[in-house]
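seq:
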Amino acid sequence: MNTFSRHRRLRSNPQIRRMIRENHVHTSDLIYPIFIVEGENIKHEIPSMPGVFHFSLDQLKNELNEIVELGLPSVIVFGVPSTKDSCGSEAYHEHGIVQKAIRFIKQEAPELYVIADTCLCQYTDHGHCGPVEDGEILNDEALELLVQTAVSQAEAGADMIAPSNMMDGFVAAIRQGLDETGFPHIPILSYAVKYASSFYGPFRDAAHSTPSFGDRRTYQMDPANAREAMREATSDVMEGADLLMVKPGLAYLDVIYQVKENFDLPVVAYNVSGEYSMIKAASQNDWIDEQKVVMEMLVGFKRAGAEMILTYHAKDVARWIKEGSYTV
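struct:
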């Protein structure tokens, strides 16, 4: 009589492995980030992010066509302004780069669900997410500017607001601001759990948002902390968040799992720039199989509990799925 279980019976061939697979990555799970810059005739590859580009609006149409053709449902818009000031006024200007990009996308690709990144760091001349006084980032003053930014993005046609600033009370302030200006239907994707991570380097190159002094550890979370993440997420849920983001994703799968277990809201994993660039660099050196590693990572996000994944790999993944070459 056998005294052990034969688990390999359900691994014996590809068909049964596919039939019992617990987690899947679908194109509909993915959000694709795009970087829009002022100017004309600009399509410049970001050196630290191979395959990711800065686009001026006149060069964005072909990119949108490709995104739609691949079946990707959503984009998140990051803007790089031509001018900056101490309060990041281009973030909330009616004709700011993100506002112009939102209107353009809604006109050229109305089927795309447009998410607006709502922050100030790439718009301020000091690179922090709020006004600064005597070296301190002013929380409540930042909230007023973030509300203006969110409202202007909604007025431009954004389908969802995604505040990424980590100021205390930002969800409550933005929810109230949207409700009072006629946008109670616009959901908030809160960057509820955003760590002061070293994985953001390539994004800061792309968004030109590196702080001119200090760092962001007074408002972004300590990577060593997990219980604190539950406090942050609890606050955002109570303040009216509709979805919860964990950023970064790869080193914080345990946090994604805990957020999913503790809150009855959709969870989004942000597969950040450093995670993307490491895989691209290793792939270009033939050290890894890019497709297999990417898909294994994204399945890991789904297994941890993420319903959606914000990833720079989105176009590649959509192409692999469309071609039928999706494997883990």
